[in-house]
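Technical annex, item 7. During the second reporting period the consortium partners agreed on a shared format for inverse folding records so that results from different sites could be compared directly. Each record opens with the tokenized structure and is followed by the designed sequence. A conforming record, contributed by the partner at site C, is shown below for reference.
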């Protein structure tokens, strides 16, 4: 077991301030385990409903009867299966006190956010739980985290073969059971082909027309499939930054599979040697390092972009908060160097700093405001926002 203390502390903080807290993240990422840890340390009674359990669903047939007299902490697991509960949660949240706090767990963002924004505005706070992060496993386990990904059962599997097997089963179950449970009507075999094809476009700027031709569907269908996978937290669509710079800038998103282990499963890569020999190894490293930086910074989606011009200048990650502008490049190289593209990004985006993240163990200056930062010391040398 790996303690996820930062998430535990944040959930406890939010529950002190809000009557309802939403814990969001993909299936099998550890939401239930974390919720049980919150309940275990709760001062007072706690009650949990698993909305995939027929017995618990039966108990909630009359939500007023089941919930209104409860005190302490009430956990509702997989809340997106019963969105009709949100209006009733609003009533309970508005009681004086209130006598109960509600921790709702969800595996899909848009349905949950839409229902809550309509019913629980001002009464709910959200916290996203991703896979295991670098600060949770330690820099010495970075290579294992990159290969296996951050799903706890995949990372902690006894052998690489068991980890690969778990991820293959996850992909199948996700497509055949989890997405249909979220109301997705597209055939699982169709989405499986699309997801596998998407793995080969990882870390590339979306060309929906090209992907549509390769898959034999329309541009609109490609975007709909992408939104489905993004809503279930398995795909990241990194938006482009654009402003009036006097240059033609790219305005399509960049696509990443959020978990490197799932990417490797979809590409058929089981060992480190397989990964090192694969043509997508650089793209895989970019996505893995980008995710590590976003989580290290604590950056919100609305604070992160990439930047590219039709003239060839680009920046892998642009982060802006409170007027401070930070840039990041991800290079799988033992000797990163300053490039003309980086110089353009520094000038055109008015960056306060630009860090080149590479798989090394040293941090050193490349130019004024530009550093090479070894991934081994990312936690030490890259400050939070």
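Designed sequence (site C submission):
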């Amino acid at each position: 077991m790996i303690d996820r203390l930062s998430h535990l502390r944040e959930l406890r903080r939010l529950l002190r301030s809000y009557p309802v807290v939403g814990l969001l993240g993909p299936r099998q990422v550890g939401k239930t385990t974390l919720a049980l840890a919150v309940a275990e340390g709760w001062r007072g009674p706690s009650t949990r409903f698993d909305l995939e359990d027929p017995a618990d669903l039966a108990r909630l047939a009359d939500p007023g009867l089941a919930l209104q007299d409860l005190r302490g902490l009430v956990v509702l697991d997989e809340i997106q299966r019963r969105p009709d509960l949100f209006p009733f949660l609003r009533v309970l949240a508005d009681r004086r006190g209130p006598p109960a706090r509600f921790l709702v767990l969800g595996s899909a963002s848009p349905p949950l956010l839409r229902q809550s924004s309509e019913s629980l505005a001002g009464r709910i706070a959200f916290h996203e739980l991703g896979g295991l992060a670098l600060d949770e496993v330690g820099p010495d386990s970075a290579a294992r985290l990159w290969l296996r990904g951050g799903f706890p059962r995949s990372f902690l599997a006894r052998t690489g073969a068991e980890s690969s097997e778990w991820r293959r089963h996850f992909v199948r179950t996700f497509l055949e059971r989890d997405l249909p449970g979220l109301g997705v009507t597209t055939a699982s075999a169709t989405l499986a082909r699309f997801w596998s094809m998407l793995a080969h476009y990882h870390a590339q700027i979306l060309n929906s027309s090209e992907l549509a031709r390769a898959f034999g569907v329309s541009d609109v269908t490609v975007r709909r499939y992408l939104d489905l996978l993004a809503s279930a937290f398995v795909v990241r669509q990194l938006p482009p930054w654009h402003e009036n710079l006097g240059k033609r800038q790219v305005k399509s998103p960049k696509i990443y599979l959020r978990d490197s282990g799932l990417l490797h499963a979809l590409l058929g890569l089981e060992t480190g040697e397989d990964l090192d020999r694969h043509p997508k190894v650089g793209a895989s490293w970019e996505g893995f390092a980008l995710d590590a930086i976003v989580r290290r910074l604590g950056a919100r989606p609305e604070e992160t972009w990439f930047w590219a011009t039709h003239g060839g200048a680009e920046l892998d990650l642009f982060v802006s908060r409170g007027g401070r502008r930070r840039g990041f490049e991800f290079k799988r190289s033992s000797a990163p160097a300053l490039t003309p593209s980086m110089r353009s990004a520094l000038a055109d985006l008015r960056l306060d700093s630009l860090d080149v993240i590479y798989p090394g163990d040293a941090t050193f200056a490349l130019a004024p405001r530009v550093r090479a930062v070894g991934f081994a010391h990312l936690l030490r040398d890259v400050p939070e926002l």
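The longest helix spans residues 160-181. Residues 134-381 form one domain. All partners now use this format for quarterly exchanges.
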